[in-house]
Amino acid sequence: MYTKEFEIRWSDIDANRHLANSAYINFMSHTRMAFLMENGFGQEEMAKHNIGPVVFYEHMYYFKEVFAGKSVKVSLQLKGLAEDGMYFEFVHNFYDHKGRNFASCEMMGAWIDLKERKLTALPEELFKNLSSLEHTEDFRTLTKEDTRKYGKKPQDLS
Hints:
The chain is an alpha+beta fold. It is 21% helix and 39% strand. Strands 1, 2, 3, 4, 5, 6 and 7 form a seven-stranded mixed β-sheet that branches. A hairpin with a 5-residue loop joins strand 4 (87-95) and strand 5. The chain is globular.
């Protein structure tokens, strides 16, 4: 399982003196990007293919508080991937210094062509690299319908 270890900094704590919501998001993003950069998705490679990752949603589940003073580990697993790699779904789990799971997050995203500003498939070599990430037990092939499963649509101000 891919993991990244973090020290909880003063700036990661909120008014209740526990890990702030924004710190969870930052730790997850750092973990994802570390895996990607270690697996062929560095800035040069993404620029060569003119792609970048976009996040559709992140659903957090908090089980227990965690406080400053001890390190935490954040894991990354692949929960779903489209046949062409366009859509991806990750699971992050958060573990305290004793290995106890104190939070979890399911996130979905896609790859965007930075010139066209449209979603795009992954090049074959990058698809293979992303596919190498450990899969969850409930891994599945994603389709466009999976990105719409919550039925959320924009509602403009009138």
